[in-house]
Amino acid sequence: MRKWVAAAVGLLVLSTVAACGSEQAGRDPAAAGRPAASVVPTAVGEPSSPGPELPSDTDRGWPGAAEVARAQCHGDVPEHLPAGLGAVEAYVCTTERRPVPGDGTWQFAVVGRATAGADALLVAYAIPDAEPGSGPCTADAPDPRRAWVVEGDAVHAVRAPQDSCGKPTPDAIDAYAELTTEVVAEERLHQLSSELADRVGCEDVTGDLLAYGQMFEPEYPERDLGDLRLGVDRACTYAVDAPPPDDKVAGALVTAQLLDAAERAAIDAALAESVEDPECARIGHTRFVVLRSDATEKQIFVALDGCAVQLDGTWWRATDELRALLSG
After folding, report:
1. Are 292 and 202 in contact (CB under 8 A)?
2. CA distance 176 to 300
3. Contact present, 75 and 25 (Cβ < 8 Å)
């Protein structure tokens, strides 16, 4: 059985109790003679806060149920709620974006046990699916509102009943959102952004629009040299694979910095010295800088070991001074 790690990891287990009473005492950690870990109540529709260190689901007295919920969290769409279930527990699993101090932003799997709202959920999920209709339907694919219903040793993966367009019914969506839950386990899945990217406001990976512009010649509005004076806020430096870099259109973040007023002024002055040069190639470099401006939502691309500076689809030959400013 896989060990669950809470707090720094982020898997939230939501379990819904329906008609449990004393019959479920054997699954309660306190009743089994084990100390119950503290839990963090939360609503399904709200992100949880990192909880305390939690034991595995086996230690909590729910053998397999939390693990099944985690493993199937975003798997195939499950079945409609089976008819005739007796006393059950119900779990839900979601994923969350969470900042991890010193380590950027991560995605966490979250499985939980509901402490209220289970009866309403089971009533709403017991409604039969509607017959497929012939009317217009939107093309979106909404969350099927998965839940894992436990009856004895059996774990049923179920979904919300569907309307004539194959989407969850409003009553089922409301019942799912109104569940009150307690955190019982959480797991860190994968990093979404680095600490550097979060702190400065850069992307960890971004398209190399210099190379892209030369290779594919997309249509952009023509820009004047004066348009380069954006008052940029940050400089994000990227490396592309080499050799050969000319078939690569993306770079990975290596350094980044926020710019103060003096640095912005110096960069603006150096940008103003750029000159038109159709012979300046926008491929062949191994590092480039993206100058970003929050005010204009524009980006200027500068080849550090090349010649070009580009805004949208217009490019110029950059000065050595600009490259020196951005390489320091």
Report:
1. yes
2. 45
3. no
Token readout for 244 is 């050969």
pLDDT tens series, the chain, 328 aa = 333 332 222 222 333 333 333 333 333 323 333 222 223 333 444 444 443 344 444 444 444 666 777 677 777 778 899 888 876 788 888 888 999 999 999 998 888 888 899 889 999 999 999 998 888 899 888 889 999 888 877 888 899 999 999 999 999 999 999 999 888 778 888 899 999 999 999 999 999 999 988 888 878 888 999 999 888 999 999 998 754 444 558 899 999 999 999 999 999 999 999 999 999 999 989 999 999 988 888 899 999 999 999 999 899 999 999 999 999 7
Q: Among candidates 130, 137, 135, 141, which has minimal Cα distance to 171?
A: 130
Report how far residue 170's alpha carbon sits from residue 94's, in angstroms, rounded to the nearest whole number: 19
The residue behind tokens 């690569």 is 248
Query: What are 60's two structure tokens?
Result: 């909590």
At what angle are helices 170-177 and 118-125 packed, to 10 degrees? 160
Report residue 116 as tokens: 């209220």
| Residues 308 and 328 sit within 8 Å (Cβ to Cβ) | no
